[in-house]
Amino acid sequence: MGERTEHLAGIVLRSVPYKDSLSMVSFLGPEGLFSFSARGIEKPTSKGHFLTYQLSCCDVLLSVSSDGKRLSFKEGAALSVPDIRDDLSRGVAYSLAAEATSLLVREEDGPEAFRLLSSFLEAMKRGEEPLTAAAAYLAQLTRLIGYGINVDGCAVCGRKENIVALSFQAGGFLCADHADFYARPGALYLKEIRFLSRVDLAVPFPRHLETGEAKKAIRDYARHLSTLTGVELKSIKLLTAV
Ligand SMILES: [Zn+2]
């Protein structure tokens, strides 16, 4: 009986060495999340070394165990790897996206998350301002996994006029009548938060955020996610260096 194999395309979320020379690779493809084992990939000379690069897009051929439960890497190739270009903001943007995706995306979000992550990688390849792309990705990933905030109207009454405050905890924008006790970050920041949740990552951005505003938005979303999910994004620390 011939060995069963499966050919798949997708994006590496992370690879973790676990025993002997085996690593477990988490992968996000058009059909969703899955993982497979790969031998020896930590070695720079290994033919599968590209699997250690977070967010590289690849084609892989996997062999399937006879019970169909275990997948292991046979061969494959990277189609594209993140291009950091010696640019700190690009490195931070890729790192945030990889970390948020691998820690927050659940089984059922898989196919939609793949489309969003692919669009983010396209935006980075196009050369969009990295922190704007990362902030938009985080905002839209937050909505995708069910923790989105209301940026269309007041989170309490739904009114679209006279929005003056923002509270992630209260569920989003707040109108003047419901803004007591909440932070009023200013009209520009409210506009940027709305922009981030709506901008289509797949096409050229009409504009980008100032560095300070983008960093604030990323930190606000990270805090919101940490409150709701307990997941702390370590890549946030890298923002201080940008
Ligand atoms: Zn209101």
Say which molecules are bound, naming each kind only once: zinc ion
Q: What average pLDDT do the residues reach?
A: 95
Beta percentage is 15-25%
| CATH H-level superfamily of the largest domain | Recombination protein O, C-terminal domain
Q: Which spans have pLDDT < 50 for at least 5 consecutive residues?
A: none
Helix-strand pattern, N to C?
A: EEEEEHHHEEHH
DSSP strand count = 7
Count of helix runs? 5
CATH architectural group of the largest domain: Up-down Bundle
Alpha-beta classification: alpha+beta
Radius of gyration: 20 Å
Describe the structure.
The chain is α+β, with helices and mostly antiparallel strands. It folds into 2 domains: 5-80, OB fold (Dihydrolipoamide Acetyltransferase, E2P) (Beta Barrel), CATH 2.40.50.140; 88-241, de novo design (two linked rop proteins). It contains 5 helices and 7 strands, in the order βββββαααββαα. Strands 3-2-1-4-5 form a 5-stranded antiparallel beta sheet. It has a two-stranded antiparallel ribbon with strand order 6-7. A hairpin with a 6-residue loop joins strand 4 (57-64) and strand 5 (71-80). The longest helix is centred in the last third of the chain and has 19 residues, at 211-229. It is elongated, with a radius of gyration of 20 Å. The mean pLDDT is 95. The structure holds zinc ion (ZN). Zinc ion (ZN) is lined by residues 154, 156-157, 159, 175, 177-178.
